[in-house]
Amino acid sequence: MKPTVVIVGRPNVGKSTLFNRITKSRDALVADHPGLTRDRHYGQAFYQEQAYIVVDTGGFEPVTDTGIMVEMAKQTLQAIDEADIVLFIVDGRDGLCTHDETIAKILRKSGRPTLLLVNKCEGMSSEPAKAEFYELGLGEPIAISSAHGDRVSEVMALALEPLFPWQNEDEASSRNPKIAIVGRPNVGKSTLVNTILGEERVIAFDEPGTTRDSIYLPCTLEGDAYTLIDTAGIRRRGKVTHVVEKFSVIKTLKAIEDANVVVLMLDAQEDIAEQDAHIAAYILQAGKALVVSLNKWERIEEREQDILRRDYERKLNFLDFAELIKMSAKTGKGVSELIKAIKRAYAAATISLSTPKLTRALQMAIEQQQPPRQGLVRPKLRYAHQGGNNPPVVVIHGNALGKIPLSYQRYLERFFRESFKLQGTPLRVQFKSSANPYLHN
Fold first, then answer.
1. CA-closest candidate to residue 226, choices 189, 248, 203, 196
2. pLDDT tens, position by position, 282-319
3. Across-strand partners of 164?
4. Which of 3, 128, 324, 329 has a C-alpha 20 to 30 A away from that of 421?
5. What is the radius of gyration, based on Cα positions, of the chain?
6. Are residues 209 and 241 in contact, defined by beta-carbon separation less than 8 angstroms?
């Protein structure tokens, strides 16, 4: 099992900067803006070729008793419970404050091994910068600069040397199929993630924009290992004004690219908006397997359900390959059906199809409907083979295939998908014409 290093501290002391430096990534959002990180954020790093887990937490303000800040405090407390060692960061330029003392008290009570890091000490004499932090009772403070990397390697050696007699297993979590949960703000994405995991792993708060990072969470679904990706809600472009939200949108689009299966969540209480169609089009363009989740279905009266179905079929008719699951993330009703649909979509996206089977299906499609003649020429489709998966790609060989219209290509895509029962994944058809042996330059 991999050791877990958890980074805690009050807002804006440099936790996410240290997380990015340790993991050699830009996975945690960083800006000069307190409270930017809100959920536990997991990353992987290596010490002498041994892997370990790093957890970035939201700014810890334990004296807050209402609103989003108390939820962030709960997340940090839960992360401390998971830790093998805690890196407690304080600000060497601001000096000791009441919040630091409160956090130190919680850490002492937890009994977790803790290193006290005095950050932002670049250009400062380390001893005076550290002096007042001795009274926190957490041992020798260590002056560092997470932005410049000063003494970070030394800190990680101190943190990890006691842990690596464990000799962690070679886990394949990075190779697990990834499921991205996407949609507009406040449709219930984080609630769904918590329901699937069976715990409050990410903040689910009745306020749009609660999730700002894409959070990667290993999990097991009906015996199989997956990674869930909880993403920030994507607003309409004109509504995205704050720099943090712009970063979040980019991270959501990257999460879609990184995913094997995408769950597009819609709010059954809201009209299907243009933005839903934009997100769906991006998923389709990325060629990702897809399940559509119609959340908060339990709140819809029966007479409104048919109207909603027709609205979905009219506005998102290009998603005819995806299963539509009516569910409630809050109560859990329909979540098991969603998981089964995710598994079917992943299996369809990664299927292996033999050349004989594809060629027989191609011949059946031609018998049912021949490609249209273009002038004196009718394209000849001879055989097909698989050219890739996730999404499946079918390569068709023949003559004059450049003259096949888009409508016939769409017909073939539907025919192959229906023939092999590939529900939940788009399918791409590519044409490769044979060279004319009698054509001379």
1. 196
2. 888 888 999 999 999 888 888 888 888 888 888 888 89
3. none
4. 329
5. 26
6. no
By the 8 A CB rule, do 255 and 288 touch? Answer: no
Q: Structure tokens of 282?
A: 């991006």
Task: State whether the Cα torsion 353-354-360-363 is positive or negative.
Answer: positive
CA distance 61 to 67: 12
170-202 per-position pLDDT tens digit: 344 457 899 999 888 888 888 898 888 876 555
Tokens for 188?
A: 């219930």
Bridge-based pairing state of the strands 178-183 and 261-267: parallel
91-100, 114-123, 248-257: least confident range: 248-257
Q: How many CA atoms lie within 13 A of 331 on its CB side?
A: 10
| Among candidate residues 214, 205, 213, 203, the one with its CA nearest the CA of residue 178 | 214
CA 162, CA 418: separation in Å to the nearest integer? 56
Could you give the angle at which helices 243-258 and 274-285 cross, rounded to 10 degrees? Answer: 40
Contact of 208 with 186, CB cutoff 8 Å: yes
Q: Which residues pair with 115 in a beta bridge?
A: 87
What is the number of residues in the chain? 441
Cα(first)–Cα(last) distance of the chain, in Å? Answer: 64
Q: How far is CA 421 from CA 45, 392, 416, 426, in A?
A: 40, 12, 8, 12
Q: CA separation (Å) from 438 to 278, 379, 434?
A: 47, 18, 12
Backbone phi, then psi, for 367, in 5-degree steps? -60, -40
Residue 230 near residue 215 (C-beta atoms within 8 A): yes
